[in-house]
Amino acid sequence: MEKTLYLVRHGQTLFNVQEKIQGWCDSPLTQQGIDQAKTAKKYFQARSVEFDQCFTSTSERAIDTLEYITDRPYIRLKGLKEWNFGCLEGESAVVTPPLPFRDFFVAYGGESEETFQKRTAKTCEELLQNKGKTFLAVTHGAFCARFRAYWNESSIPELRLVNSKQTIGNCCIFKYRYSQSTFRLVEIVSHKQQKTFLS
């Protein structure tokens, strides 16, 4: 049975505005972030999308985003958390290198890119083993990026990654079709954004 996964980045946060590194640490949604989540809700309502199962990262910014999108019950998963940036959490984003980060954060006690990317793939595949056909998962920017890269070759040609430095806006929606243990990216919905940083 084919299933559908909507993978959504959380709304804008205080640390996004302050240009601080935000992985496993957290900060609240701004008013703009709340509005972005409400815009995402309108996208799903306009298409009469009904979620059979909802999941979110355990980070407050993701939980709050999900609660603005839907009033459906949800499950919090640590596997949906952002890349662990180690002791650089909460620091200014100016200390990070240009994308792609690769294993830059390992030296600071964070996750390697390979470990993180495998976590994204494992978590999403496991959550789709639950009953239902349509799933919502609210997560983070780097999570969405590394998951997309993992399944790049199976995505429709016009959505395949050609530039690893592409950024992901707050409340960007990635629509995946899942069958025969394979995720296929079929749509990306980007809302009008201001520049945002790691989260």
TrEMBL record:
It comes from the Bacteria. InterPro entries: His_Pase_superF_clade-1 (IPR013078), His_PPase_superfam (IPR029033), PG/BPGM_mutase_AS (IPR001345), PGM_Phosphatase (IPR050275). This is Histidine phosphatase family protein. It comes from Enterococcus larvae. The lineage of its organism: Bacteria, Bacillati, Bacillota, Bacilli, Lactobacillales.
